[in-house]
Each structure stands twice: as structure tokens, then as C-alpha cells.
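Q: Sequence in, structure out?
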Amino acid sequence: MSRLASAYSAAANALLGSVIVFTLLNAVLYLFPAFRAETAVETPIAFFGADRLLPAYPGWSRSDLIQLHEESRVVFEYQPIVQFRVKPITGTFVNATAQGFRVNARQAPWPPSPDAFNVFVFGGSTTFGWLLADRDTIVSQLQDQVAQAGCGRQVAVYNFGQPSYISTQEALFFQSLVMAGTTPGLAVFVDGFNDFFFGGEMSFTPVLRGMMDDSDLHHRLGPLTRLPAYQFARRARARLLYRPPVMEPAAEQQLHERVIAQWLRNKQFIEEIGRGHAVKTAFVWQPVPVFKYDLTKHFLYRDAPLPPGEPPPNADVGRGYVRMEAHRQALEAQGNFLWLADMQADARENLYVDRLHYNAVASGAIAGRILDFLKTASLLECASAP
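A: Exactly. Output:
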């Protein structure tokens, strides 16, 4: 009995000690949320450090850069139809509204004025202007350039870009706004990277699919998955085990063709909505660093070049662009398509703030090309009403 009592006492002490350690670990992780898996998007400053990124922000102080990246840790919330959207943000450099648009430097009021020619711009994180201040996004600079173009009537540009959105979500977002009675004069869609990167599937679809599966670990563990220790372990496991997917060339080509076909169907769907509600539509195929851009000019690769023979990150997206280029001529003949994929072919300077997202200079150049196209194609109603 004495040995049994001793064993019981030792087991009880071990169990109590484990509970205390587990509780303390969760308490510490709760106080330091950066160590947990969250819905907030982590920015490149966590991987590269502020000093490595400062060269991409000429004239910025280190403290302002850190503040910008902190505000850029966007948090997603559930949204019907489109699956998710960025929660409203109020900051020094980054501001986004409950209506789903990023704030411009010269932001027009909401709801849009019926006296103005309203332009809604949709896209992914490059359109949203991730890692850029409000004033530096493509859409904000487009608004500035329109204001300087001497239009005879007010043109109000709204930035409905959302990080991680593919063309399917953009089409549904546009549809939901029109269904709610908010109809612009022109809707512009900036696409390319995300459709290929996510394989034509909304980015949270695998997570949601797992949540509906009875065999899913989250489903079986229930409230335990909200504990900081579980979130930390899940995040650490994901980092340790993640390997970029590698597809066979034939399978990759089939995927790219499916993505392109889906984008073409989304384009047709958007155009039909536009025709039914007197909304003009325009489509822009965006530039990416892995297609006709000299990566030796990219600040992240200039000082630390890729090892010989190693492809750059997202090289598969570049191969998708090669296949998309075969559709360029037919799309341009339709009069509402702008091919900007190769606009960086002759660039001799850095155009990015991380591996993918444009800097202020590149965003301004893209805005200028879009404005020129909209005027040439008579899609922008700039003249005053008679």
C-alpha cells in the first residue's frame, strides 16, 4: 500500500506540474500573440527585418516602416458570397472601411455621389496596395492623376481591392454591390497573379472544407483549438513541414488552362452584369516579377541573388503568364482589355517592396497606364454633362 501511495502521489504531482506548465505556457502565449497562429496576415518584416526592407522605401524612417507593416497585418472576417474580406482598419498609413474599400489620399464620400462618374477598382493585394501607405496605392494614384487630367466633371475612384482575392471573388463582390443598389459608371478589374497562385480556388477553401469534414482535427478537438498553445504548435508545424508544391509539367499546364478558362468565364459574367446595369467594364492583366522583369534589379535579389539554377519564387505563375499571352490579341480586340504584363520588361530599377507587391513608383506607373487606356478606349466619362 505504501508503494501504491507513493506511485499515486508521484503521478498526481506530475499531472499537477503538467497542468501548471500548460497553463503558464498558454498564459505567456496569450500575452505575446505574435507567437500564435492568427487570422492576421504576417508581413515580410517578420522574415527579413526592417533594415533589409528599408531600401524599398526611399525617404522612409525605420519607425514609420515598422508602423506601416504593423498596420498591414490585415485581419480577415467572414463575408457572405465572397467568403472573406478585410476587417475595417484605422491607422496612420493604412485605412479600410466597413464597406470594403481601401481609403485613397483624396477619398470621395460614401455612398458615391450620383453627380460624379464613379469608378470601382477590384483586384487582389497589389490593387489593395498591401505594404503601401494609402497615398501610394495604384487606385489612390489613379485618383490623383484623374484629378490632374482636367476632367469637366468629378471622377471618384474607389479601391475595392482585397488581399488574396481571385477573379471569381471580384466578380461576386461586384455583383453584391450592384445587388445592393450601389452601381458605378465603370468597374475595373486588375488580375493575373492570384488566379494562378491559388489555382483558381478561393484561398480559405481548404480550411473551410476541412471544417465541414467530420474527420477534421479542428472539428474533433473543438474549443481546444482556440488555446494559444495549440495555435503555436500548429503554426510551428506548418513552418517546419511546408514545402512548395511541385507539379509535373503536363499537370501544371492543365491547371493553367483551367485557370485561364475560369478567368475568361468570370470576365464574361462581369460584362453581362455590367450590360444589365449600364456599367462599363475594363480588365487589366497586371505585371509580375517572374514575367519579363530583370530580377537583378529587384532589391531582394540584387544583394542576395538566387543560387545558380534555382528558379525564383512563383516561377510557375510566370509560366502561366506565357500561356495567357496566347489570348492577348483576341482579348485586346474586344476593346476593354489592357495587357500590362510586360510593362516592366525594360525597367532598370527596383519596382517592389517585397517579392511580389509594387512600390509607390510602380503603382504610379500602372495607374498612369490604366488612365491612358480608359481615356483612349472611351471608358472614362471625363467631360462635363451637356
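Strands lie at 76-79, 83-86, 117-123, 155-159, 186-191, 280-285, 337-339.
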